[in-house]
Amino acid sequence: MPSVRTAPQASPSAGGVRDARRRETRARLFDSALAEIGRSGVAAADVTAIANAAGVVRGTFYFHFPTKEHVLVELERNEEAKIVAELRDALAYDGDLVSVLLLLVHHVLAAERRLGPVVFRDMLGLHFSSTRPVEEEVAKHPLAEFLREVITQAQHSGRVPSDADAGELGVFFLTGLFALLATGVQDSATADAVLGRYVTTIVKGMETR
Protein backbone atom coordinates (compact mmCIF):
# COMPACT_ATOMS: atom_id res chain seq x y z
CA MET A 1 0.00 0.00 0.00
CA PRO A 2 1.58 3.30 -1.02
CA SER A 3 2.42 5.70 1.75
CA VAL A 4 0.55 8.98 1.96
CA ARG A 5 2.78 12.02 1.96
CA THR A 6 1.66 15.31 3.36
CA ALA A 7 2.93 18.55 1.97
CA PRO A 8 5.54 20.17 4.22
CA GLN A 9 4.26 23.11 6.26
CA ALA A 10 5.52 26.39 4.93
CA SER A 11 7.74 28.06 7.47
CA PRO A 12 7.14 31.75 8.09
CA SER A 13 9.47 34.00 6.18
CA ALA A 14 12.26 35.74 8.01
CA GLY A 15 10.54 39.03 7.26
CA GLY A 16 7.28 37.78 8.78
CA VAL A 17 9.05 36.69 11.95
CA ARG A 18 10.80 40.05 12.22
CA ASP A 19 7.51 41.91 11.75
CA ALA A 20 5.83 39.81 14.43
CA ARG A 21 8.69 40.45 16.86
CA ARG A 22 8.62 44.15 16.07
CA ARG A 23 4.89 44.32 16.79
CA GLU A 24 5.36 42.39 20.01
CA THR A 25 8.16 44.70 21.13
CA ARG A 26 6.07 47.74 20.27
CA ALA A 27 3.13 46.41 22.28
CA ARG A 28 5.38 45.79 25.30
CA LEU A 29 6.79 49.30 25.06
CA PHE A 30 3.31 50.78 24.75
CA ASP A 31 2.09 48.98 27.87
CA SER A 32 5.28 49.83 29.80
CA ALA A 33 5.00 53.49 28.80
CA LEU A 34 1.40 53.72 29.98
CA ALA A 35 2.32 52.15 33.30
CA GLU A 36 5.20 54.61 33.76
CA ILE A 37 3.07 57.59 32.74
CA GLY A 38 0.37 56.42 35.14
CA ARG A 39 2.91 56.49 37.97
CA SER A 40 4.82 59.66 37.13
CA GLY A 41 2.90 61.66 34.52
CA VAL A 42 4.11 62.13 30.96
CA ALA A 43 6.53 64.96 31.74
CA ALA A 44 8.41 63.00 34.41
CA ALA A 45 8.08 59.55 32.80
CA ASP A 46 11.52 57.92 32.42
CA VAL A 47 12.17 56.45 28.98
CA THR A 48 14.98 54.28 30.37
CA ALA A 49 12.58 52.79 32.91
CA ILE A 50 10.05 52.17 30.14
CA ALA A 51 12.64 50.39 28.00
CA ASN A 52 13.94 48.33 30.92
CA ALA A 53 10.42 47.19 31.82
CA ALA A 54 9.90 46.11 28.20
CA GLY A 55 13.27 44.28 28.12
CA VAL A 56 14.86 46.45 25.43
CA VAL A 57 17.45 49.21 25.19
CA ARG A 58 16.45 52.87 25.41
CA GLY A 59 16.94 53.52 21.70
CA THR A 60 14.32 50.91 20.83
CA PHE A 61 11.66 53.06 22.44
CA TYR A 62 12.48 55.95 20.10
CA PHE A 63 12.45 53.60 17.10
CA HIS A 64 8.77 52.90 17.81
CA PHE A 65 7.68 56.19 19.42
CA PRO A 66 9.48 59.44 18.56
CA THR A 67 8.31 60.97 21.86
CA LYS A 68 6.40 59.96 24.98
CA GLU A 69 3.53 62.08 23.69
CA HIS A 70 3.18 59.75 20.69
CA VAL A 71 2.21 56.99 23.12
CA LEU A 72 -0.67 59.11 24.44
CA VAL A 73 -1.79 60.07 20.94
CA GLU A 74 -1.98 56.38 20.00
CA LEU A 75 -3.83 55.63 23.22
CA GLU A 76 -6.32 58.37 22.44
CA ARG A 77 -6.98 56.93 18.98
CA ASN A 78 -7.57 53.50 20.49
CA GLU A 79 -9.92 54.85 23.16
CA GLU A 80 -11.84 57.01 20.69
CA ALA A 81 -12.33 54.06 18.36
CA LYS A 82 -13.62 51.99 21.29
CA ILE A 83 -16.03 54.75 22.34
CA VAL A 84 -17.37 55.16 18.80
CA ALA A 85 -17.96 51.41 18.53
CA GLU A 86 -19.86 51.48 21.83
CA LEU A 87 -21.91 54.48 20.72
CA ARG A 88 -22.86 52.88 17.41
CA ASP A 89 -23.98 49.75 19.25
CA ALA A 90 -26.04 51.75 21.77
CA LEU A 91 -27.63 54.35 19.54
CA ALA A 92 -30.77 54.29 17.50
CA TYR A 93 -30.22 57.87 16.40
CA ASP A 94 -33.38 59.93 15.92
CA GLY A 95 -31.82 63.37 15.59
CA ASP A 96 -31.79 64.14 19.33
CA LEU A 97 -28.35 65.71 19.67
CA VAL A 98 -28.60 66.20 23.44
CA SER A 99 -29.08 62.48 24.06
CA VAL A 100 -26.20 61.56 21.74
CA LEU A 101 -23.79 64.04 23.30
CA LEU A 102 -24.72 63.11 26.86
CA LEU A 103 -24.08 59.46 26.01
CA LEU A 104 -20.74 60.41 24.47
CA VAL A 105 -19.77 62.24 27.67
CA HIS A 106 -20.74 59.15 29.68
CA HIS A 107 -18.43 56.96 27.59
CA VAL A 108 -15.54 59.44 27.81
CA LEU A 109 -15.85 59.39 31.61
CA ALA A 110 -15.83 55.59 31.50
CA ALA A 111 -12.52 55.84 29.60
CA GLU A 112 -11.10 57.88 32.48
CA ARG A 113 -12.00 55.08 34.89
CA ARG A 114 -10.26 52.55 32.63
CA LEU A 115 -7.09 54.59 32.18
CA GLY A 116 -6.73 56.23 35.57
CA PRO A 117 -6.75 59.98 36.27
CA VAL A 118 -3.05 60.69 35.56
CA VAL A 119 -2.96 59.10 32.10
CA PHE A 120 -6.40 60.50 31.22
CA ARG A 121 -5.57 64.09 32.12
CA ASP A 122 -2.18 63.98 30.43
CA MET A 123 -3.91 62.64 27.32
CA LEU A 124 -6.46 65.47 27.39
CA GLY A 125 -3.78 68.03 28.20
CA LEU A 126 -2.02 67.27 24.91
CA HIS A 127 -4.88 69.01 23.09
CA PHE A 128 -3.71 72.28 24.64
CA SER A 129 0.03 71.64 24.57
CA SER A 130 2.74 72.69 22.13
CA THR A 131 4.31 69.23 22.56
CA ARG A 132 1.41 67.41 20.89
CA PRO A 133 2.56 65.64 17.71
CA VAL A 134 1.22 67.33 14.59
CA GLU A 135 -1.73 65.61 12.91
CA GLU A 136 -3.45 66.57 9.72
CA GLU A 137 -6.60 64.53 9.16
CA VAL A 138 -9.83 64.71 11.14
CA ALA A 139 -10.40 61.09 10.07
CA LYS A 140 -7.58 60.19 12.47
CA HIS A 141 -9.88 61.40 15.27
CA PRO A 142 -12.69 58.84 15.48
CA LEU A 143 -14.81 60.89 17.90
CA ALA A 144 -14.63 63.99 15.72
CA GLU A 145 -15.56 61.96 12.66
CA PHE A 146 -18.47 60.34 14.52
CA LEU A 147 -19.79 63.76 15.60
CA ARG A 148 -19.48 65.06 12.05
CA GLU A 149 -21.74 62.22 10.91
CA VAL A 150 -24.26 62.78 13.72
CA ILE A 151 -24.44 66.53 13.16
CA THR A 152 -24.78 65.99 9.40
CA GLN A 153 -27.79 63.77 10.10
CA ALA A 154 -29.26 66.53 12.25
CA GLN A 155 -28.78 68.92 9.33
CA HIS A 156 -30.64 66.55 7.02
CA SER A 157 -33.57 66.50 9.47
CA GLY A 158 -33.56 70.32 9.65
CA ARG A 159 -32.49 70.55 13.30
CA VAL A 160 -29.14 72.16 12.48
CA PRO A 161 -28.68 74.76 9.72
CA SER A 162 -27.48 73.16 6.50
CA ASP A 163 -24.86 75.85 5.91
CA ALA A 164 -23.02 75.08 9.18
CA ASP A 165 -19.79 73.10 8.99
CA ALA A 166 -20.58 69.81 10.77
CA GLY A 167 -16.92 68.95 11.21
CA GLU A 168 -16.11 72.27 12.84
CA LEU A 169 -19.10 71.98 15.17
CA GLY A 170 -17.96 68.52 16.28
CA VAL A 171 -14.41 69.70 16.96
CA PHE A 172 -15.74 72.74 18.83
CA PHE A 173 -17.83 70.50 21.10
CA LEU A 174 -14.95 68.11 21.82
CA THR A 175 -12.45 70.89 22.49
CA GLY A 176 -14.74 72.45 25.07
CA LEU A 177 -15.51 69.07 26.65
CA PHE A 178 -11.82 68.15 26.92
CA ALA A 179 -11.03 71.55 28.43
CA LEU A 180 -13.74 71.04 31.07
CA LEU A 181 -12.57 67.53 31.91
CA ALA A 182 -8.93 68.63 32.06
CA THR A 183 -9.90 70.90 34.97
CA GLY A 184 -11.23 67.90 36.89
CA VAL A 185 -14.85 69.08 36.86
CA GLN A 186 -15.96 65.44 36.74
CA ASP A 187 -14.69 64.96 40.30
CA SER A 188 -16.92 67.68 41.75
CA ALA A 189 -20.31 67.21 43.40
CA THR A 190 -21.90 69.27 40.61
CA ALA A 191 -20.30 67.33 37.74
CA ASP A 192 -23.56 66.01 36.26
CA ALA A 193 -25.17 69.45 36.31
CA VAL A 194 -22.13 71.20 34.81
CA LEU A 195 -21.61 68.67 32.03
CA GLY A 196 -25.33 68.48 31.30
CA ARG A 197 -25.51 72.26 31.05
CA TYR A 198 -22.49 72.29 28.75
CA VAL A 199 -24.15 69.80 26.39
CA THR A 200 -27.49 71.61 26.27
CA THR A 201 -25.83 75.00 25.78
CA ILE A 202 -23.74 73.74 22.86
CA VAL A 203 -26.74 72.06 21.22
CA LYS A 204 -28.85 75.21 21.54
CA GLY A 205 -26.07 77.08 19.77
CA MET A 206 -26.07 74.55 16.92
CA GLU A 207 -29.78 74.18 16.34
CA THR A 208 -31.94 76.07 13.88
CA ARG A 209 -33.73 79.03 15.46
Model description:
- The protein is elongated.
- The longest helix is centred in the N-terminal third of the chain and has 27 residues, at 14-40.
- It is 67% helix and 0% strand.
- Helix 5 packs across helix 6 (117-125) and helix 7 crosses helix 8 (166-182).
- The relative contact order is 0.10.
- It folds into two domains: 16-65, Arc Repressor Mutant, subunit A (Orthogonal Bundle); 67-206, Tetracycline Repressor, domain 2 (Orthogonal Bundle), CATH 1.10.357.
- With 209 residues, the protein is mainly alpha-helical.
Keywords:
single chain, 209 residues, mainly alpha, disordered N terminus
Quickly describe the structure:
This protein has 209 residues and is an all-alpha fold.
What is this structure's SSE topology?
Elements: H1 14-40, H2 47-54, H3 58-64, H4 68-90, H5 97-115, H6 117-125, H7 142-156, H8 166-182, H9 191-206
Give the CA-based shape: elongated
Percentage of residues in DSSP E strands = under 5%
Main beta-sheet strand count, sense and barrel state: none
Distance between the termini: 87 Å
CATH fold topology of the largest domain: Tetracycline Repressor, domain 2
CATH structural class of the largest domain: Mainly Alpha
Number of helices: 9
